[in-house]
Structure formats: structure tokens, C-alpha cells
Amino acid sequence: MAASYDNSSISSLKGADRVRKRPGVIFGSDGLEGAQHAYFEILSNSIDEAKDGYGKKITTVLYEDGSLSVRDNGRGIPLEYNEAEKRYNWELVYCELYAGGKYDINSENYEYSLGLNGLGACATQYASEYFDVEVIRDGYKYNLHFEKGENKGGLVKEKLRSLKENTGTFQKWKPDLEVFTDTNITYEYLLDVNKKQAMVNRGITFCIINQSSDTKTEYCYENGILDYIEEISNGKNISSPYYIEGSGTGKDREDLKEYKVKAEIAFAFNNDVPVLQYYHNSSYLEHGGAPDKAVRSAFVAVFDKVLKQRGKYNKGETKINFVDIEDSLIVIVNSLSTMTSYENQTKKAINNKFIQDFLTDLLKERLEIWFIENTADSNRVIDQILANKRSREASEKQRVALKRKLVGKSDSWDRVKKFVDCKSKDTSIRELFIVEGDSALGSVKMGRDAEFQAVMPVRGKILNCLKSDVSKIVSSDIIMDLIKVLGCGIEIPLKTSKKGVLSFDINNLRWNKIICCTDADVDGFQIRTLILTMIYRLCPTLIDEGYVYIAETPLYEMRYKTRSDEETFFAFDEKEKNRIMKGKDPSRFFIQRSKGLGENTPEFMWLTTMDPKTRRLVRVTSEDAQKMQEYFELYLGNNVAARKSYIEENGHLYTDDLDLD
Questions:
Q1: Measured distance CA(124)–CA(127) in Å, rounded
Q2: HEC string of 545-595?
Q3: Which of 183, 262, 392, 598 shows the greatest Cβ crowding within 10 Å of its Cβ?
């Protein structure tokens, strides 16, 4: 019976429990992302000091035990008694949510602040195993120590002997595993966050130290986002970087107060590394919001206008969209405002209407000037954008045509030539054996369990799908028949879809296992590799989800006769044959080398290759997707020189070593 629910059932969290029991509410996650965001909250406060001109260096240390520290040389957090609030400031800062010095939008302190909500320092302290503070200001050194949200020892104040010591704040803490499910913040994450902050806070040095490896990295961009664009474009721009800045005052709604906005924007066009990044008050806006909408609207409007003015559209041609521009665009927007409406505490998007309108108008105005001032650059860019557009439209037509070809009638796969289906319609048990040639089809067909095992033959060496374009692939009857039998469609990267999915739906897959079953010789291995390459190129999700297998077929059948008995062994390669024979009388062995699947008896095929109890299946995995892609490209791609070099250097590693001693 359920517990009673009455007036006494309502309760409220107090003190540290407000964060420790519900960290996701404050940090957006109770996992690693939450622990990372807690770090960013502390870093943000130091950034706000430096942005206001107090200190030019911020140092982060990652310690061996997973704890972190942030040190700045700003003014130092005020920690003493606050007459207005009738409490100590250290209590307000570290023990009170929604307390801080950044709420007054008309104040000169932290005019364009990253940390506006008064949550970060307190919430991070509450969520830490321990949290230590050292502040130097007004000729004193102040220390605080917290454990699991509770202060230990109060505020310790010590007068400095010398007033020459730099002011600033040092905070060290260890994220608590009782609060977060994962606290393993990596050095790579710290490098990424600090590099982004260095880029949008010009002239401030961000130092990151990894105590475990004794590694130190510093970032400082004297020219801010312009330097960053030069860095990531790697000299491959089709237009020079262009810088825009502006400021304004406005309101999100007529009945609301006005606030200040200023922004800097840099862009360039580059076919190698398209990048869209948005920052507001230094916070990286992963989901964009208002700045992203402004960029999309302004670029499409101005480009469409100029294309019409310069007569670049063909007769009857549709207008460009942002995808065509985005494919060749690097743009960094760094906006600031005295009032910001973030979507939530994690600050991954903003939704201020005035900021969106301001950025849209600023971009439109300056883009039109860019077109006038940069005729040569803009003509190159226009040609590229139109090429992107026409390529996208051609791909879309191809996608539609291919979808029609793949979908067809619902039962079209039943009529694929020489495909032998199984009886069961239960996709949780159905297995598809892909075999080479008609002879293998016969032995596998007769040796299988027809209830759940189906067979699809391929004729010879199929097309190398890594070297072939889409039009050639879809014109191959063998490949299209295979795709129809699989039932799930294909995935090919196209500009019409960010996910690169073309007519693919894993829910339409008709098989629990897709098994490549080829001869145990060089030709068989090559055919198997080409089949796997086809799946890797056209249906990589099947590999990712673990549906693809290799059936190991024996190279030798070995019968060992004794006076009273006869044993049968199957060796799947030369080394295994030698291991089986080791220590036995060689003269008692009768060894039959497999001449191909088509010459095996049905009983032999069932016992060695198809019986789930005795067969050997190897699942094809993509645990290291990057490495898998590199090897596929090396072995079967277009870089012949690299492949030749690899074979010359490593070919001996793939030669069977018959000496087992």
C-alpha cells in the first residue's frame, strides 16, 4: 500500500542539500558534465575580474588526486562583515545561493559579467568533498575551509607583513563522488575550455598545469578572435578574415528596462574547416540561441540579395539556404550584454530578442560593406557558395531517386535473384549468410537450419565501395540486391542531412546476424574484405550496433587414426594445424585441405560453420572507429603510395610463421 500523502508530506531542502541532493538542477547534470560545469563556474568569476581590468593571468591546476584549483590576481573576493546584509560576505558568497556582486545591471562592477546568477561559488562549494579559499586584499590574507558543504573553523584572517604582495583569489576543491557520478575531469577538457576563453578575452593569459605529468600550457590571444581564425584556417582561406564590432542599447520588450549590448564578430570563408562558434559574456554557447539565429538570417538575406544583384542565379533557380553558406564559413561571434536571458544555469544558449535583432542588423550592414570593399574575395566566395548549393541539390535529387529504388514494393526483397530466405519472420533469431558464388550457395543452403538461416550469394569480387562514387555504387545490381535483402537502407554522407543518413532505418533491418562466409584462402579473404567495406561505407551503423560477423571456415579437415579409434579435427589456419599435430605421430594423420565452400558436404558445413553450438563467429566491431576508418582508407582507398609504403614496411608481419618452437 502506498504511503500517505498529506500536509506533513511536503518538505524543503536546506543548506548544502539544495545542491548535493539535486546537482542536476544547478549544474545541468549529476555526471561528469556537472562536475565540469562546476569548474567553469569558478573559472568564470576569475574571468569577470580580469575582464574588468583586474589581473591579466588566471592559473588552473589539475592535481594527481583529481582536485582542481583556480588562481587569479584580481582584487580578491570581499569576505568580511556586510553591514547592509547583516552577515559576513564569505557566508553570502559560499553558503548562500543567489548572492553576489553582479545583480545591479547599472553597477560599474562586472558590467558584462559571465557569472550573473550568484550560484557558482556557493554551488561548487556545496558539491565538493572539500573546498579551500585563500584571498589576499586590503593588506590581509583570508582563509576558509569547507568539507561537504560545511564550514570548518570560520574565517581566518592574517595581516600581511608587506603590502607589496599581489591581491587575488585562490580556490581549491575536489568534486565529490557522493554528488556526481563521475568526477574525472581531464586535462584535455581544461585545455579546451581555457583556450576558448583566451580567444574571447584578448590579452588575458590562461595557464593550465597538469600535476600528474608536470605539464604546463598557456594560451593568450592578443588580437582575440581574429588570431583564432588565422590559427584554425591554417592558411587555406578563400577570403581574408574580416572583423566587425559594434554596440547599442535596447530592450527585449517595450515594458522592460533597456540594457547595453556590444559585440565583435570575425568571419572568413574556408573549404577545409567550417566553424560556427558563439560566445556571450565569454560563455561558449554550445546551442547558440539568439546569435545563431542572427547569423543564419543575416548571411542568407545579404548573400541572396547580392547574388540577385550580380545575376549569379540561373533562370528559375531556387535561392540559397544557410547550409550552402555554412559548408564554407568560419564565424566567431563574441557578444556581451549587461542583461542576459540564458536558457538555464548551464549557459549553453541565450534567447534575448534585442540581442538577436542587434546582431542581425549589425551583420547585415557590415556584410553589405564587405561585398563592396572585397570584390575579388566576394566573387570567389559567391562561386563557392553556388557550387555548394548546386551540389546539395544534385545530392538531394540522387537521394530521392535512390530512395525510390531502395524502397520499391514492400516484398521486392523476396524476389532478389538466388536469395534463399528462412522460414521464421522473427528478426531476433534470423541469420543471413553472405557467401561467394553459386557452388557455396548450394552447400550452405543444404547445410543450414532453414528455420532461421538464410543465404545470399555474391558473384565474384564486388565493387570497392571506398573507391566508387554513389552513382556507380547504386548502379551495381549485386550491391543493391544485398541492400534490399538487408532491408534497412543505406547511409551515405550527403550535404542534405547533417547526420549523413540516406534512406536508412535500423528498425527495418530483417536480421539478428549478418554473417560473411567466404573461402579460407586469399580470394575468399579479399571478397570478405570487399563485403565488409561495402557495409562500412553504406551501413556503418550495422557495425556500430554489432550486427556484422565473420564465419571462420576451416582450412583443413584432419583425421587422426589410432588402433582403436579415429578423431576428427578442424584447423582454421596453418598455425592451428601445426598445433594439432604437435606431439602426435604425423603418419597417422589424414589431412584434407579445403578447396572451397562449394566442395564441402552439407554435414561438414553445418558442423564447422553454421551450427551455433560448434561454429566460430567473429563479431566485427568499431570500438576504435577512427582507427577502423584509417585502415579501411589505407587498404582500400585511393592513396596508392601510402598503401605501397605500408606493405613494404609491414608486409612481413602478415606472413605465417610456421616455426612454433
A1: 5
A2: CCCEEEECCCCEEEEEECCCCEEEEEECCHHHHHHHHCCCCHHHEEEEECC
A3: 183
**Integer Cα distance of 59 and 640 in angstroms:** 48
Phi and psi angles of residue 657, each rounded to the nearest 5 degrees, phi first: -100, 110
Helix/strand/coil for 600: coil
Q: Cell numbers for 621, please give them.
A: 566491431
Beta strand pairing call for 128-137 and 140-147: antiparallel
Which amino acid makes up residue 112? Y
Assess contact for 586 and 603: CB atoms under 8 A: no
Map grid coordinates 584571498 to a residue. 135
H helix runs in 96-135, sequence order: 120-126
Q: What would the mean pLDDT of 117-127 be, rounded to a whole number?
A: 79
CATH-assigned architecture of domain 17-219:
2-Layer Sandwich (3.30)
Pairwise CA distance, residues 24 & 4, whole Å: 28
* Cell of residue 136, nine digits: 589576499
Cα radius of gyration rounded to whole Å, the chain: 33
C-alpha cell at 618: 567473429
**Smallest Cα–Cα separation from 523: which of 575, 593, 597?**
597
Q: What does the pLDDT read at residue 465?
A: 83
Domain ranges of the chain: 17-219, 225-386, 396-553+620-654
User: pTM value?
Assistant: 0.62
Give CA–CA dist 156/134, Å, rounded. 10
Could you say which architecture CATH assigns to the domain 225-386?
A: 2-Layer Sandwich (3.30)
C-alpha span between 443 and 457 (Å, rounded): 11
Spell out the residues 6+ positions from residue 261 whose beta carbon is closer than 8 angstroms to its own.
247, 248, 249, 250, 335, 336, 337, 338, 354, 355, 358
Across the chain, mean pLDDT equals 85
3-state SS, residue 536: helix
Topology given in CATH for the domain delimited by 396-553+620-654: Rossmann fold (3.40.50)
Model confidence at 280: pLDDT above 80 = yes
| Nearest CA among 108, 52, 41, 114 for reference residue 281 | 114
Please count the residues of the chain: 661
464's grid cell: 570497392
The predicted pLDDT at position 117 comes to 38
What is the C-alpha separation between 12 and 550, in angstroms, rounded?
58
- Enclosing H/E stretch for 309: helix 290-309
Q: How far is 326 from 482, CA to CA, in rounded Å? A: 35
Q: Closest by alpha carbon to 232, among 335, 331, 367?
A: 331
Instruction: Say yes or no: do domains 17-219 and 225-386 share a fold.
Output: no
